[in-house]
């Protein structure tokens, strides 16, 4: 893949993030990864799996992980984390956890931008804890977008893609109230989403994607009877994308389009992914197929970022029963994306006529 390891952020300190990080390591699914987090929090999580403890080593540089013995969890601890995180009750919103999660994400992005990490895999954070800590972003995607630029440059557009073995969905709008999200479905937003999906997904999926575009209204507006956004916004954006060489079709009724793009044995699906207008329109069908293999991918960043498709699961945090399958899938997807991106860079040799 690359000599630099993948970086895993620990997520909310009192959610299931630290536990599933440990579980992925114990299962042998997180080799060549370094955790960016609080060592005391991770030690407490280790006790859930092995009461006698598991080996953990604090490191100062991700490259130091290569010198550790097998089975040892490498942890890089950002400076300035709140004290006493390992003493907080499991499963309760706390501003200190939000501040710690933000500090870990900030440190991990800085390391990746310096080339010290191959990519980023983020364990779940809690949006209320972020807000309580005064962090001015509603979630991972918006925070990563802001951190990905330097020197006051404008943030590049990004999009959320949720994917599993059967379905891939890219969203036009994400963490907005539904009334605001509908207003945010504009010609430019739809066209931009199609461009990002067309440009970003090949590195993850192996080729230019065939994109199905879901409508916003029931039956995709039924010719304007149930709303005209399909006619005035979405269809014109699709046509503009097609003029740019993007294989996009639609808009299709949102209650059936996902079935047409679902990959199943013996079924030749006509589409590689679906672009959906709003958060729940797109994520409900993916999550219904099973969160255990779902992966959240941020498209448009200058580095690879994936995460599990579930949240902090406060209801089971601290019980030692959390399933790491989605995190493992996120690690696997991040590795595949890094390999694909590295291979793409090597196809144009330095100094060649095509460079």
Quick overview:
The chain has helices spanning 17-26, 39-49, 95-113, 127-132, 140-147, 178-184, 187-200, 202-205, 229-243, 257-261, 279-288, 325-346, and strands at residues 6-9, 33-36, 56-58, 73-76, 119-122, 159-163, 168-171, 211-214, 248-252, 273-276, 295-299, 305-308.
Task: Explain what the structure shows.
This protein has two domains: 1-156 and 304-355, 3-Layer(aba) Sandwich (Isopropylmalate Dehydrogenase); 157-300, Isopropylmalate Dehydrogenase, CATH 3.40.718. The two termini are 22 Å apart. The chain contains twelve helices and twelve strands. It is globular. The mean pLDDT is 89. Helix 1 crosses helix 2 and helix 7 runs parallel beside helix 9. The protein has 355 residues and is α/β, with parallel strands linked by helices.
Question: Topology, pairings included?
Answer:
Layout: E1 6-9, H1 17-26, E2 33-36, H2 39-49, E3 56-58, E4 73-76, H3 95-113, E5 119-122, H4 127-132, H5 140-147, E6 159-163, E7 168-171, H6 178-184, H7 187-200, H8 202-205, E8 211-214, H9 229-243, E9 248-252, H10 257-261, E10 273-276, H11 279-288, E11 295-299, E12 305-308, H12 325-346
Parallel strand pairs: 1-2, 1-5, 2-4, 3-4, 5-12, 7-10, 8-9, 8-10
Antiparallel strand pairs: 6-7, 6-11, 11-12
Core attributes:
355 residues, Isopropylmalate Dehydrogenase, 12-stranded mixed sheet, 12 helices, single chain, 37% helix, alpha/beta, globular
């Amino acid at each position: 893949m690359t000599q630099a390891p993948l970086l895993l952020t620990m997520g909310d300190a009192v959610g299931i993030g630290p536990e599933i990080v440990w579980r992925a390591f114990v299962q042998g699914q997180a080799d060549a990864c370094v955790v960016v987090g609080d060592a005391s929090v991770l030690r407490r999580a280790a006790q859930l799996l092995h009461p006698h403890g598991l080996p953990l080593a604090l490191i100062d540089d991700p490259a130091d992980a290569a010198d550790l013995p097998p089975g040892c969890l490498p942890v890089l601890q950002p400076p300035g984390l709140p004290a006493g995180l390992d003493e907080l009750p499991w499963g309760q919103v706390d501003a200190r956890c939000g501040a710690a999660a933000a500090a870990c994400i900030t440190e991990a992005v800085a390391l990746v931008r310096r080339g010290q990490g191959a990519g980023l895999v983020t364990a779940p954070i809690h949006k209320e804890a972020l807000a309580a800590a005064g962090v001015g972003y509603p979630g991972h995607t918006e925070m990563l977008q802001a951190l990905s630029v330097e020197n006051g440059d404008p943030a590049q557009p990004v999009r959320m893609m949720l994917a599993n073995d059967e379905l891939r969905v890219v969203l036009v709008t994400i963490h907005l109230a539904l009334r605001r999200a509908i207003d945010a479905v504009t010609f430019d937003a739809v066209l931009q989403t199609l461009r990002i999906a067309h440009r970003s997904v090949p590195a993850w999926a192996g080729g230019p994607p065939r994109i199905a575009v879901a409508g916003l209204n029931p039956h995709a507006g039924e010719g304007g009877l149930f709303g005209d956004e399909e006619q005035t916004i979405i269809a014109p954006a699709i046509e503009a994308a097609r003029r740019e060489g993007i294989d996009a079709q639609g808009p299709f009724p949102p209650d059936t389009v996902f079935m047409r793009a679902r990959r199943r044995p013996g079924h030749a699906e006509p589409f590689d992914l679906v672009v959906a207008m709003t958060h729940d329109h797109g994520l409900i069908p993916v999550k219904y197929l099973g969160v255990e293999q779902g992966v959240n991918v941020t498209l448009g960043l200058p580095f690879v970022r994936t995460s599990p498709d579930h949240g902090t699961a406060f209801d089971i945090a601290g019980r030692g029963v959390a399933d790491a399958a989605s995190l493992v899938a996120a690690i696997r997807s991040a590795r595949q994306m890094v390999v694909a991106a590295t291979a793409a860079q090597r196809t144009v040799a330095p100094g060649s006529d095509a460079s």
